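Much of our argument rests on the idea that a fold can be written as discrete symbols. In the encoding step, the backbone of a single protein was reduced to a row of integers, each denoting a local shape. We regard such an encoding as a compact summary of how the chain folds. The record that follows shows the chain in one-letter code together with its fold in token form:
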Amino acid sequence: MRLRSFTLMFFLLLGTLAGAQQIRDLDIKAVLLKDGSAEITQVWDVLVTDGTEWYVPVENLGKMQITDFSVSENGRPFYYEGDSWDIHRSLEEKAGRCGIVRKRSDAVELCWGQGSIGNHQWTASFTVTGLVQSLQDKDAFNFMFVNPGLVAPPRHVKVTIRNATGGPEWTTDNTLVWGFGCPGEINVIDGEIIAESTEPLAYDNSLIAMVAFDKGLFEPAVSRDISFSEMQDRALEGSSYGEGDKSFKHFLWLMLACLLSGGALILWVAIAYATGNKYKKSLFGTRKITEWFREAPLEGNLFASDYVLENSSRFGITTPNSQNLIGAFFLRWILEGTVRVEPDPKKPKRVNLAFGDAPEITDDVERSLYEMAREASGANLLLESGEFEKWSEKNFRKFTAWPERAKARGRNILHTKGYLTGLPAKEEGAREMRHVIEFKNFLNDFTLSKERGAVEVKLWKDYLVFAQLFGIADKVAAQFERLYPTEFKEYAQQTVGMDIPYMMRTIRMTNNMSSSAVNRAVQRYQTGSIKGLGGGMSIGGGGGFSGGGFGGGSR
């Protein structure tokens, strides 16, 4: 642990010293041929501030070989010098030229001249013979496509692996995938394998893809006398595949550590929560938020409010709010008439949702959720019990990507408004974000106080939708029914077109449907990842890889 901490500190120091260098994007395409060789193309979008050349170490080649290396920029090919590349030349002498440095029999450096300081977009191409190798029971590879320790951590990387074997299309039935080294996802999509980062890489991040193919898809030129399970066991060691909810496990480990140290921190956490001292001061300007706010916060924006909720806890253990956010959108569509509620003819106590023509939804993230729900409703455009859950499980890759898009949208909205340009937040931003918690306090407590005042009917839609976001819609609706029986009955008829019991069933349905859909999709996502069906990548693991190396970039 001490060695790893030192290594991370070293990387951070190195990143500080080389902070001006940038790798904005690294897009890699690998075309796999019948004999198992791969034609690889790398597109580097970079800013260089020093050095004379760019280099990419490729090591651990074993029986593989690197051939056909070439580089171009702006459509202009570089002159290839072969294995005689001399690293001890000037910027001008290396300009427009490329070559290879042989380090060992199984290690090379692919090099080319930078030509000038500034922005560049280079295209480097080469062939790796024997990438896909014949194992005892599968044809497979475990290859590092992006090295750790690059001169600057890439902001974004994507690897697309394409099928040029002339054989069957790759599917999750004949192709299994795992990814290691950085936060990201790897999936088999439309016959291609796509691995992509979901956030900027750190200095010690890499991108390793392990892929296993059914026998018969390739005729590999290289064989290894091992089973795929041996390759898999080594790669999965130290990975997060199969760990389940890591944040929850980390929380349990924290609690255990506290117990072993005498429980002082547990006592502090318990006291803090009991006294309401639980919010991030850097976000809200205070750790205690007991006031009320009587209107929908942040101009009624659900994405921004959800982002504040998920990041509000001082201790960082707030559970994801995805199901409540999805349920809030469903309820808003119902109350606005975008989606109609209809009684289920088979079970009168149950309701279904009827979708019509696509409405004018300007936000593309909200629109994508609507389109998924509409697709789940089938040919009759009637979303019946269990349909959304089954659809989300079948389309788990698409569905589980939505919460991250929603989170990013909320963060961007807050940044655009200037509320979250840094931490601590500006006073105006802290005040506006406090309104989210204050509005939740109001909805939780307003029946308990004579100070609540009259609630205007025109505000009820926002109240119910945000109550769904806060996970208390049932409670708030019951309070409305008790305090304003006549008005709430009329409101239910005007919005849902049914009596109060149907309004209550609608609220429960949106909550249960969104919760079940998220849970089933996540379960399928995690199971699919473990079994190689695609999904999230593991930062740890990936051992036994070929290719890759350490470092690269300007020198």
